[in-house]
Each structure stands twice: as C-alpha cells, then as structure tokens.
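Internal tracking record. Fields below are filled automatically when a chain is submitted to the structure queue. Please do not edit lines marked as system-generated. If the sequence contains nonstandard residues, flag them in the REMARKS field before resubmitting.
Queue: standard
Priority: normal
Entity type: single polypeptide chain
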Amino acid sequence: MLRRHPYLIVAVVLAGCAPGAFPKQSEKPAPKAEQAAKPAAIKTRQTLGKTTQNVLELSKALEEGGVLAETSIKSDGLEIASEAYRTQVGKAGSLAVEQRMQHYNALNGEYPQTYEQFMTQIIGKGQPDGLSLPMLPYYQEWAYDEATRKLVVVEFPAKRDQRERETTGAAGL
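SYSTEM-GENERATED OUTPUT FOLLOWS
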C-alpha cells in the first residue's frame, strides 16, 4: 500500500502550477518606495496618571484633520467607563485652564490675546509653576481656541481609524 506524505502532495501541487505563479527564492523584497507609501504606525501612549503641557493651536489642528471632540457620553455597555473617564479628563483640564485664565484676567484686565501668550502665561510650558494637563488618548490632543479663548479637546479620526486597521488586520476582526 502506498502512503501519501504531506510534503509530497504539496510538491506535486506546486509543480503543476503555472510558471511565475510563485516568487523565486532569489527575488528581492518590494522596493523601498512601495514600503514608504505606508503611513507610519500609530503609537499609543500611557494616559492614566500621566500629564502633558502640549497644547496645539486650534486652527492648525483643524487643518491637520482634527475635529472638536464629543464631550458627552453616548456609549452603553462596556465602553461607558472608558468614555466617561475620557470626557471627564477633558472637562477637568478645561476647568483648570479656565481658572488660570480668570486669575490672569483679574491681574491684567484682559485675557491672553495670542496662542504664544496663552502658552507662556497660562500653561507656562517648562516653568516650575506651569500647568500640567491630564494626558489624553493617542487620537486626541489639547488645543487652544483664540477666538473663544478656551481650551478644547481635538480628536483625530484618521489616527483612530489607522490604529484600528493596524490592530484588527485584513479580516477586520
């Protein structure tokens, strides 16, 4: 009785394929130009217990594809806890900035007029008494709206979508 070996079956199947159907061992990988077309992988970041002084200009953030983040909780089920945390962190950071803005207004009779003044006088980036804001998820950033003189949260849906594609794979699981 003739026994079938699994490798023998594969070799027979491959031998019957059209020439060029499978890459040769000596072929090189795709050129770097094709690899460069893929966007850089999205890096997530630690958020719990972390702070930042990074605040973007709202106009530039909107030009880069950002949208104002939703500040209400619309999820149900398991997602509600993370959404509640995320929205409350955004509100807490905005309240801290609002308090500093009111203090600045009381001392100077006006609010900071430009983004640069805001960063120097309110956030105090790199200063010992600077304001540290809670870290937001990788797809959100703090932004300063000069028109309303408010700190807002900007969401970048493209980052969120790209990260979802990277982690779910081609099957979309």
